[in-house]
Amino acid sequence: MHTIQLGHSDLHVTPICLGTMTFGEQVNESDAHRILQHASARGINFLDTAEMYAVPPKAATFNATETIIGNYFAANKGAREQWIVATKVAGPSRGMPWIRNGNGDLTAADIIAACHGSLKRLQTDVIDLYQIHWPNRSAPAFGGIYYQPNEADAQQTSLHAQLEALAQLVQAGKIKAVGLSNETPYGVHEFMRLAAQYNLPQISTVQNPYSLINRSYENGLDETMHRLGVSLLAYSPLAFGLLTGKYDASGLTGDGAPAEGRMTKFPTMRAQRWGRPEALNTARLYNQLARDNGLTPTQLGLAFCYQKWQVASTIIGVTSMAQLDECVDALNIRLSDELLQAIDAIRWQHRDPAQ
């Protein structure tokens, strides 16, 4: 599998990244280790995790995913060297009291302490890509579509202070590159401006949602990142399973809904952007388009992301090796110009219902 350079960093990753937020919730440790081994055998060299994982987030599984991955590295000689490892420091607590005792800020000290915690759990000396999971300010994310000014932002730890903390970690050899997640054009521009002004680490990546039912990235952030040389890591390319077709007939909770499907199993997930009726109804249109063109819905959803020039690496989340194989095999599918035009025709009618 070929590799792509991430932003201005020295990291070269495969166009498929193994997402691990199911490890410790839907996937037990032994199965997670088998998935890691199989992903490496299939040529993937990039994995993404976070201190917050597993998902859905809760106190009982906070830090669990990193621990599972660290145990894999410890048990398999040479395994760590096979992977470019990305993880994230959680942003302000957002109603999750187990994150820094519910603190609504993300300080420089928090970033450094969180990084040391991740290093310990991952049982590694260095994190290749360290990301801020969500902004430390009022910004539309996780389904929010409107910016709402908030005077309290002035009391939050500044972007400059956060970037200085990340610089300390780079200088100490604890991390190699810096990224953001769930970010806006303003956030990317401001971090990059501060990096240039104060000779601090440049932002190499932004990890944002990108799928057939959420292409909001293309409404300005793509130009920002292209011109600044920042790479997109696309998460939720299958929209939490909506773009696999498994909910088409049953809906998210009806008779026949997959018992182990994330949207069926976890009510908190249905309360988010993926659970909107418009999201499922629009996903059904894309899923039928796939079938009409001799593809599975999964193949269409992933091939769309793999083929887009805006995407450096697509993050796949799997619960079995069969799912992993299907995701990897879709890398060889090329969508015709006519099919891409049909995709755009649906978007013209329905825009981005899972934004």
From TrEMBL:
Organism for this UniProt entry: Hydromonas duriensis
GO molecular function terms noted in the UniProt entry: oxidoreductase activity
Record-annotated membrane-spanning stretches: none
The NADP-dependent oxidoreductase domain, residue ranges: 15-346
InterPro entries for the chain: AKR, AKR_Detox_Biosynth, NAD(P)_OxRdtase_dom_sf, NADP_OxRdtase_dom
Alphabetical keyword list: Oxidoreductase
Coiled coil segments of this chain: none
Protein name per UniProt: Aryl-alcohol dehydrogenase-like predicted oxidoreductase
Superkingdom to which the source organism belongs: Bacteria
